[in-house]
Structure formats: structure tokens, C-alpha cells
Amino acid sequence: MATASLHSLLLKTQTTTNGYFFKNPITPPSQNISFPNKSLSITCATQVQTQSPTTPKSQSQDRIFNFAAGPATLPESVLKKAESELYIWRDSGMSVMEMSHRGKDFVSIIEKAESDLRLLLNISSDYHVLFLQGGATTQFAAIPLNLCKPNDSVDFVVTGSWGDKAFKEATKYCKPNVIWSGKSEKYTKIPSFEALEQDPNAKYLHICGNETIHGVEFKNYPVPLNKDGILIADMSSHFCSKPVDVSKFGLIYAGAQKNVGPSGVTIVIIRKDLVGNAQEITPVMLDYKIHADNKSLYNTPPCYGIYMCGLVFEDLLNQGGLEQMSVEKSVRSLMNVPFTLEKSELEAEFIKEASKEKMVQLKGHRSVGGMRASIYNAMPLAGVEKLVAFMKDFQSRHG
Ligand SMILES: Cc1ncc(COP(=O)(O)O)c(C=O)c1O
């Protein structure tokens, strides 16, 4: 059974309290729910969703509910396992942080992390899985450097700020074109794929699978019409939140710090035939061939972060894997839930009071304001319920 999410709970809240004017800008107007008889309203930029069946129900009393977009909350079970192994990892006599990255213990850790991720996402041997550094932002440069010559064109579909940043960085290394942008509609839309005017000569088509700031997520993916059929996705903020058919992509990349681990690890899944053609100016640390040939151990990797990602992958597998999350496709969770108050002057108070109630990191991204609750896999249902109850209470006091 899928557990109810912030959104479905919120909608329930509206009908029972006859409270907010609750509007959802990315669903058709007929689906908006409105209760105009109260003055306080909350506008939410995402759709009615449920969290995955793997959503934890609760967490221990002394932990607060952390709604941050990343670094983000991690599964309590994973933190406890890491705690139990922090001082001495298994029979190694030392912590993972102290191990040689070339020793057999760490090699077993990184190999297990890779094979568990391959199981979770059903990644075939046609793909390399790389554990890198520098965040998703470094990939904005690494991808064109590895896949393009300076005069090659590339197609970008820009559905939010991260896609825009990726595009701007690419202009330094190739000739990217924005073939669709949601900017004029404040990044609340995903385009119709048929209407996309893709360049057949483009090296690849780039999308951001889930725009973390605007809360806009692709539910399915455009078919790339470029010669080599290469689709590339920044999946930073919905990586491992649901099954993905990796074979549809030339490259998937994600910073770990949202859904699968601590900051400092960037995961790149790349089709093997796309490796080995980097531009000459490519720094060695950005060259996928170097990392693939050295199994992500060319230089000292972020060992502890990779170990933590491995624990998260193991935890997800133990809970039945990502397939579990495909049970209710039409109501699958979005990861980032931006919302605003009609009386925007009350937002600072909302955030302050929520923090006193041990619910933190609810402030929206500085570029858009408002509030944002990030509900990655590890956010317990109790956190969502507490936030909903708090919103009801806040409304009754300020409405
Ligand atoms: C979708 C997306 N892409 C890229 C980034 C940048 O990631 P990093 O900080 O790992 O460079 C973020 C960070 O929040 C993001 O949400």
C-alpha cells in the first residue's frame, strides 16, 4: 500500500476543514480546489501524489523533520548502520574513512555499491557506472567536453533553473540550442514531445528530469531524434525515486546528496560507446574514459560518501527495490513541493514557527521564494503528517 503524501494529505485537509483556497498551477484549472470563503490560501506547484511504499512511517523522537532539498534527510536505518560501523568497519580494525581506497576492503565496498545500483536500476553491461566528485554542476561541463567537439550542436529542453545552468555551461564547450524553454511560464510546464523541434544533427538532447527549485518532473521522456539517439538527463533530485529504463538514455547523472547519500559523490551512468572521445582540453578529472578505465579509482574518491551511498542502495534493495515504487504510477511522488501563502507576509512567520516545531529547511529556493518541502525517499510519513497538521493549525490562527 502506498502511503499518503504531503499533497494528498493536504487536499484531504482542505475538504475537511473547508479552509484554504488550494490551487495547483500545473494541473488544469478544473482540477484546482478552491474554498474562497477564507482569506488565507496556499498555492502549491505540484500534483496530488503519494509517497513510495518504502516511505518510513516514523523516526525517533530526537530527530527533527528535515525537508531540505539537499543535502537531505537520510534513512534512519542507514544512519544507524553507519553509526555502528563508524569506529571499526567489519573485521578491518579501522573506519571506512581511514582505509586505502585501493585496499581490498574499500574495493569490496565500491564494487558492492556499484552492483547494488545496477540491480536497483537494472543497468546492463553496456553502461559504465562511475562514482565521481564535483557535483552535478561539474557534469554540466564534463558532458559537452566528453561528447562534443567545439562546433557540435546540442539540444536543450529547459524546464527550470538547473536545465538553464546546464545550458549556459555547455555554451563554453559546444554550440547548444534551447529548443524549448518554460521560462516565460515561470517554469511550470513540461512541453509536448511531438512539438519539440529537435535538430537531427545535434549530438544529444539534454533534459533535467526533476527541476528541484520549481518542482517540475518529467513523467516520461522524449525520444531523441538526433543521429545517435542520445538522451541525457540530470536526475539529481529524483534519482532512485522510481524505476527508470536506463537503456533509453545515453547518460544519466545525479548528485547523491538528495536521495541516495551525502554530498561529495556524483553518479554518472554512461553508455560505453560514448566514452573515449573527449576534447583535448578536457581536464583529466573530467574525462569519463580515465574514470571508467580506473573503475572510479583514478584518484582518491569520496570513499565515505560512496560507502554511505552503498548503504542506501542496500537499504532500498532490502525494501524490495525501486519496482515497489511503480505500484501506482499515476500517483507517484514528486520529490520537491514548492508552495506559497496568499498572504506572503506570513511566510517568514510560517517558517519560524515550523522550525520551533522541529520542522526545518522549509524555505523556498532563494531564486523563487515561498516555501518548499522536499520529500525524498527517507522522509518519514510522520514528517509529512506533522507538516500538514501544522499548516491546518497555522491557517486557523492566521486565516
Ligand atoms: C536538478 C539539479 N541539478 C543540479 C544541481 C547541482 O548539484 P550540485 O550541487 O551537486 O552541483 C542540483 C542541486 O540542487 C539540482 O537539484
Could you explain how this protein is built, in words?
Helix 1 packs parallel to helix 9, helix 2 packs across helix 7 (303-318) and helix 4 packs across helix 5. Strand 10 (210-211) and strand 11 (216-217) form a beta hairpin. The strands form five sheets. The chain has a seven-stranded mixed sheet with strand order 6-14-13-12-9-7-8. A four-stranded mixed sheet has the order 2-3-15-17, with helices on one face. A two-stranded antiparallel sheet has the order 1-4. The chain is 29% helix and 17% strand. The protein is globular. The protein starts with a strand and ends with a helix. The chain contains nine helices and 17 strands. It has two domains: 3-77 and 332-398, Aspartate Aminotransferase, domain 1, CATH 3.90.1150; 87-318, Type I PLP-dependent aspartate aminotransferase-like (Major domain) (Aspartate Aminotransferase, domain 2). Mean pLDDT is 87; it is low at 10-40, 46-50 and 328-333. It is α/β, with parallel strands linked by helices and 399 residues long. Bound molecules: pyridoxal-5'-phosphate. Pyridoxal-5'-phosphate is lined by residues 70, 135-137, 162, 208, 212, 234, 236-237, 255.
